[in-house]
Amino acid sequence: MAHPIYLDNQAATRVDPRVLDAMLPWLTELYGNAASRSHSYGLTAAAAVNIARGQVADLIGANPDEIVFTSGATESVNLAIKGAVEAAYQRSGGGSLHVVTAATEHRAVLDSCKRLEQAGISVTILPVDKKGRVSVKGLAAALQPDTVLASIMWANNEIGTIAPVAEIAALCNEQGVLFHSDATQAVGVLPVDVNEVPVDLLSFSAHKMYGPPGAGALYVRHRTPPIQIAAQIDGGGHERGLRSGSLNVPGIVGFGKAAEICIAERAADAWRIGEMRNALVAGLREALPGITENGDLTRRVPHNASITFPGMQADRVMRAMPGLAVSSGAACSSAQPGPSHVLRAIGLAAADASATIRFSPGRFTTDEDIAAAIRIIADTIRTQSHVEQQDAHEGTRSYSHS
Ligand SMILES: *Cc1c(COP(=O)(O)O)cnc(C)c1O
After folding, report:
1. Which atom of ligand 1 is nearest to the CA of 156?
2. Count of structural domains within the chain
3. Same domain, 99 and 207
């Protein structure tokens, strides 16, 4: 069978062939440890890491020494949230501390906050509106004298909604609260620039931007007084003591190359991918008039369409489409059964949340893929809706040919 059409780029992206080419020498003849200073293998690896650090920094307008390499966005988020709060806890001598986040965050953020809560930190989880937007006013009202950190994602991984990060950053700066943003779905797709949006901490990941899995970054703004972060992995003191462990040189080199490509091609890619997303949605709407689209349709990332097929069961629909690789919500939550917390947070009923599929085109998606995907989805939904109707002995909805 031919490879399934891949529309799950918000879960993982294909490694760009140019990235793989850049990585290969570091997996073969150039295998030195970047911390080995006594021979050319180590020094060459350290030089390659330096170049990559510059490329990754350039992508977000940062200085190279503001980039901490990690194993991915999950680790970056854990380091940012737990590290900032732990450092604040030490400074406060054990006083009360408060953190604010939002209901539609990735589990890496929500579960890091839950861990803090178990340790006695108070956590406010802001609601979002129907489009998945947090209210800046609501955030302002939630801030307390003991609030140390707000963590609000730049763009959502299930519904694509872009947060008002500039306003949030301005508010947090004014109130002396650290602002961390999980920008895993934004970096490489949107023009993320830490000079324009003064975030303090920013998490992102190579494998969501056509780099390899296993490489990520945490941006830590240089400022006075310096941002204090307590390391969460102790050891040899790599990454200025913030993240010990021998560096993943091939992964970091690939991350750097992926960043360089995004700098050159991001805008054109985003436009083309957005056009394909729009074509997909238009084709599905024409074939299946009953569908609805989730998220903020005027402020969302181009590589996302979250579509509800009322009356259907997304799991069954997806099983019936082996030729199409899509997902219902976040891959990272697949271990957790039950409808997506993001879809519930925007007010979808459980049945509608379970009837929702995420479509995510990317750099390697073609117009032919989109045309084929529309046919596959429309055929599957029509067939399944008959099955569902027979199951229920009476159909309340019809996806018959229109
Ligand atoms: C994928 C993703 C993560 C986790 O990234 P990893 O690099 O896989 O750990 C975190 N946040 C968001 C918004 C994501 O999309």
Report:
1. 13
2. 2
3. yes
Tell which residue, 366, 384, 383, 379, has the closest CA to residue 5: 366
CATH no. for residue 306? 3.90.1150.10
The mean pLDDT values, 10 residues at a time, for the chain of 402 residues are 91 98 98 95 97 98 98 98 97 92 98 97 98 98 98 98 98 98 98 98 98 98 96 95 97 98 98 98 97 98 98 96 89 64 97 97 98 98 81 56 46
The structure tokens listed for 225 are 């007084």
Q: Residues enclosing ligand 1, CB less than 6 A?
A: 72-74, 106, 108, 153, 157, 182, 184-185, 205, 207-208, 216, 332
Please check whether residues 252 and 277 belong to one and the same domain.
no
Work out which ligand 1 atom sits closest to the CA atom of 183: 13
Q: How far is the CA of 378 from the centre of ligand 1 (A)?
A: 30
Q: Measuring CA to CA, how many Å separate 137 from each of 15, 147, 172? A: 40, 16, 12
Q: Whose CA is nearest to atom 9 of ligand 1?
A: 74
**207 & 280 share domain:** no
Strand, coil or helix: 301: coil
Q: Of the residues 185, 203, 300, which should be mutated to test ligand 1's pocket, given the most ligand atoms within 8 Å of the CB?
A: 185
